[in-house]
Design goal:
By secondary structure, this protein is of the alpha+beta class. The protein contains 7 helices and 18 strands. Helices cover about 20% and strands about 30% of the residues.
Length: about 375
């Protein structure tokens, strides 16, 4: 049962230090926006990591977090984002984002997060810290895996295809029709591939669990309607992009030179960021401080640009603007686009465990708002 109650003061103490003083330009999109086409931002293709499987990703099964206080994290998302509680066994909570996705929050010792970040020496030099709303405080929430359903599914065939590509699948079946395999991506991230039965059960059985204690604050009334993007750090973004696209049928939108935003079928998007193997300085140090998913952006409805900001601040939460695009001001310096006129609109805040949560206006129908807004052109 979830017994968490957060006062306004506790929320401010937990997340206020995480975002105070963050500059508006802190969330610039990609290090190659202003140097697109340079040797360090080479957008040429690389040799595919393996041949395509022909699979299609058809469902977002679940995303799994380790958190220092799973009850507070779950209660926060329920009140802020409109998620619903499917179950809480005292060790973890399963929440639905609607009938299209789920998140699992698992309890973990607070001391286990002291060295949770994994270093990545290949990340861009000079790239600003996109989405670092939690910078300046300890983040005690880590995404440890994600699970997607694919088609066609035949466990024996899927196992064989994974092994053919040099992967070592580990079966994970729960006996009620759910079948899956865990594999490691090029950086060792835990990818779970399933037959989609988790999503089928989610649609057939609406969540019925209730919080046993009061919500941390008044519910917003928002609904989470779209997986805007997973911000996914990789040591070699081209290799990781090739891995996921050829394995799971994802599609790239554009190669910016330090990242590629990929479409996860009709489920949502992922921005795969990291070092560029075609960069002459690749492998020479510097760069990204974290592999894996450092923040997630969810699209909500209803969206009102000023209203969303007001509702966040009313609850003692920071509303850090992120338009991810910019223009030159009268003095020739680069200025972030105003959120009221920008093609992409979002805010970053932080959860009780310090995780960087991004909230945007993106839905399935305008899912290309971000890549279209920031797609760079070669310098003159």
């Amino acid at each position: 049962m979830i017994h968490s109650t957060l006062s306004r003061r506790q929320l401010l103490q937990a997340i206020g230090a995480a975002t105070v003083g963050a500059p508006l330009s802190a969330f610039a999109q990609g290090r190659c926006m202003l140097t697109f086409g340079s040797p360090a931002c080479n957008t040429s293709d690389i040799t595919p990591v393996f041949e395509p499987t022909g699979w299609k990703t058809t469902s977002f099964e679940h995303l799994t977090f380790r958190v220092a206080d799973y009850q507070k994290e779950a209660a926060f998302y329920i009140a802020l984002m409109g998620w619903t509680l499917r179950g809480d066994d005292g060790k973890q909570a399963v929440l639905d984002l609607g009938n299209w996705g789920s998140v699992i929050f698992r309890q973990a010792p607070a001391e286990s997060f002291e060295s949770a970040a994994r270093s990545n020496p290949e990340e861009s030099r000079g790239r600003s810290s996109q989405g670092r709303a939690g910078q300046g405080t300890q983040v005690r929430a880590v995404v440890e895996s994600f699970c997607f359903g694919i088609e066609p599914w035949n466990a024996k065939s899927v196992d064989a295809e994974l092994r053919k590509r040099g992967l070592a699948p580990v079966a994970d079946n729960n006996g009620d029709g759910f079948e899956s395999f865990h594999v490691k991506d090029p950086d060792g991230f835990n990818l779970q591939i399933s037959n989609g039965n988790f999503a089928k059960r989610r649609r057939m059985n609406p969540p019925a669990a209730k919080l046993s204690g009061p919500a941390p604050f008044q519910p917003t009334g928002w609904k989470t309607v779209w997986l805007d993007h997973l911000s996914f750090g990789a040591s070699d973004y081209k290799k990781s992009t090739s891995f996921y696209c050829n394995l799971l049928g994802w599609k790239g939108t554009y190669d910016e030179g330090s990242q590629n935003e990929c479409l996860i079928g009709e489920i949502g998007d992922i921005i795969i960021r990291g070092g560029n193997p075609l960069d002459p300085n690749f492998g020479k140090g510097g760069g990204r401080s974290r592999l894996g998913i450092d923040h997630i952006s969810f699209g909500i409805q209803p969206w009102d640009t000023d209203g969303v900001k007001a509702e966040l601040e009313k609850r003692g939460l920071r509303a850090q603007v992120d338009t991810s695009s910019r223009h030159k001001g009268p003095d020739g310096t680069w200025v972030p686009d105003d959120i009221h006129t920008a093609a992409f609109k979002s805010y970053h805040t932080a959860t009780p465990n310090g995780y960087n949560l991004q909230i945007s206006y993106v839905t399935h129908d305008n899912r290309l708002a971000l890549p279209n807004a920031v797609k760079p052109k070669p310098s003159a």
